[in-house]
Amino acid sequence: MDRCLYCSKSPSEVGKLNLGHGELAEIYECASCGIRFTNHHESAHESLHSEPSTYDNHDIRALKIKRYLDGQDYLAAKSELELRPANKFVLQEIGKLQKGARILEIGCSRGEFVGYLRSQGYNAIGSDISITAIQGAKKHFGDYFVTELSDLIGKFDVIFSVGTIGCVSDPKGLIEELAAYLDNTGVIVLNAPNISPLRSFSRLWPSTLPPDLTRVFSREFFETLGGFTAIEVLEDNMSKRHAAFYKFETIFENKVGRKFKSTSTKHRGIFVRFARKIFIACTLLFVPKIKSEYGLFVKLSKK
Length: 303
Known about the structure:
Blueprint: E1 12-20, E2 23-30, E3 35-37, H1 44-50, H2 56-70, H3 74-81, H4 85-94, E4 102-106, H5 112-119, E5 123-127, H6 131-141, E6 145-146, E7 156-162, H7 171-179, E8 182-192, H8 196-200, E9 215-217, H9 219-223, E10 230-237, H10 240-253, H11 265-283, E11 291-301
Parallel strand pairs: 4-5, 4-7, 5-6, 7-8
Antiparallel strand pairs: 1-2, 2-3, 3-9, 8-11, 10-11
């Protein structure tokens, strides 16, 4: 690739990512933009939502939240959402608003977050490019979802996205488009995959593979965005256990584990699971702080 997708500089190819079944993805990084990326396929997310995939758990999670809301167990619904640190960050920002505030979620999937917010008195709407996802969201939580931003009317107090910014072809372009839908005092709240742990451990890519995730960001990518009067970027750390597991994956499986490729899948799996338990138990007290793969939290303000 001769030119970066977002600037005129030349990106560096940092490696080829094995996606399985003999498929490789070329991974690039632009030092100027602070972004690592690979080829993006616009139809990928409709396929992920409509065919058996890792997205199958989206519907399961939505149904679980719906059961809580139907039973008016709002605390349980909130607790379920807050199992993801990114959701907790978003809820803290929304909690500063008055009830009735207009809120837009980008990449709403099956709509459970919007469903919960509406149960709490907020005027929330969800958007997703997947027709299948929006059909599921409407079925579970009502007619508060769209596939096209052009269908939206009026301005919003908060526009938020959990992880979706790493799944779009043009993150900067999307942020600029969303800014046009913000009220004069509105904010955009984003959660994004963080390039920091990849650089620290010489890893090519986070655990979510293409074609789902195709962009990974540095904090500088967001800090240098134009058009906002205030930009806040926070970085979350992994738990100690997760950090030990992450270190094991990087050091052991990527290096030592290669020596066992000739063994059967069954025996290699048993060996790796045993070695992982020993490694984590021995390093849990000494593992350093590691930035979370999905721990970039961004707040962009127009006020």
